[in-house]
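Weekly sync notes, structure subgroup
Attendees: PM, AL, DS (notes)

Item 1: joint prediction request from the bench team. They want all two components modeled as one assembly rather than separately. Inputs as received:
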Amino acid sequence: MNDVAHALTGLGSRVGSRPGLVHAGRRASLTFLLEIGERPFLVELDRGRVAAVEEGPFVMRSWSFALRASVAAWQKFACRYPEPGFHDIFAMNRFGHCRIEGNIDVLLAHLGYIKAVLSCLRDDAS
Amino acid sequence: MIQPEPIVGRYLTVSVDGRDYRLYFEEAGRGCPLVCLHTAGAHSGQFRHLMCDEAVTDRFRVIAFDMPWHGKSVPPAGWQDEEYRLTGRFYVDIIMTFIEALELERPVVMGCSMGGRVVIRLARVCGDRLGGVIGLEGTDTPEPWYDSSWTEHPQFDTGAFCSALVSGLCAPHSPDEFRWETLWHYHQGAGGVFRGDMHFFRTADSEFAGDSGAIDTAACPVWLMTGEYDYSCTPEATLRTAVRIPGAETVIMERLGHFPMSENPEQFRGYLLPVLERLLEGRGTQ
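Output from the run, pasted for the record:
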C-alpha cells in the first residue's frame, strides 16, 4: 500500500526527473497545502520544480490552496488503478472524499500541471 | 502503398433559422445509419475507432459531424460579433437538419456527454423519425460538479485548461495513447467554444427530466451507457434517468470513463456491439 506521506518526500526527484513536466510548470511558482489525515504538508513549487516539501504543524503560514483528505482516501488515490471516485481530485471532491479550499483561481491557472504533479504520488510513478 | 483508413470526410452546408452552416462530417461503412455526436468542446474524431471496426461498419453506415464552431466546421458568418452559446433548440434543429440533408432513413443517433443529453430530447420530440438513440455518458438533467464562476476564469477559454479539466474523467485503465489523443481534442478547441457548449450542458436549457418519461421507447429505443469512472455523468445519475424513461435500457461499463469511444475503444466495443445487435434486431421487427 502506498504511503503517501513517504511518497511526498520523494516528490521533488520524481517531478524533477520529468523534463516535460518541469517545462509544463515553468510558470508555476506557488505553495499549496496537502493534508493527509491530521498531517499537514506544504508543497512549494518554483518554476515547475518542487523546491521544498515541509511537514507541519504550521502557525498561520500562508498557502494558495489546500487539498485535504483522509489517509485512506489518499492511499486509494495513489493506487496505480484507483477505484472509481478516487482517481482524480475533482472526483474525490465530488463524492466527498476530499476538500479543495483556498484560492481556487491559482489551482485553475495551473490545473494540468498540478494534476500531473499529484500523479507523481502514484505507485507506478518513478 | 500503405492502405488508407476507410474513413471519408466531406463538407455540406445546411441552413437553420435562416443561417448557413458549413459542416464537416466523416463516415465509413454501409447499412443502418448510425449518426454520432461528439462531446462538448471536441469533434468528430472521437469516433474514428468505431469507423475502422468492421464488426460495426459491415452493418452500419457510421457518420459523425463536427458541430458548428467545432473541429473543421466553421462558425456561421458574423460569428465575430457574437458570443457562442449552444441552446437545446438549436442543437436538436442542427442534428435533424443534418439527418434530413443526407436523407438518412430512421438513423440510430448515438451521442456522448452533451450528445448523450440531447439524444434524450431527440427521442422525445423526433423519436418517430429515428431508429433509436444511444446516450453515452448521458442523463436527462444537468448536475454541475464545479462552480459556474469557473467558466469566467481566463483559463477556461484555453484548450490546455479544458483538457486538464476533463482529464480526470478518463478511466485509469485507458491506454495512455488514446487517453492523450482524447485530451488533444480538447487542446484543439477554439477559445470560448467549450464554454459555449456549457450553456446547454450545465443549465436548465438541457433540463429534460420533466418530460423524458413521455418518450415512446417502443418506437424509439433508448439505451444509456455510462462508464463507471465518469463523475460528470455518473452511473447513479444514468440509472435515475433510466427510471424516468419506461423501457430505457442501461449499461454501466467497467474500466471506462466519460469518453468510452475514444479513451479505450477496445473496452468500449465489447459493450457496444451487443447493443447495436439489439437495435438491428428491433429494426427488423418495426
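Discussion: Chain A has a mean pLDDT of 95.
Action: AL to compare against the crosslinking data before next sync.
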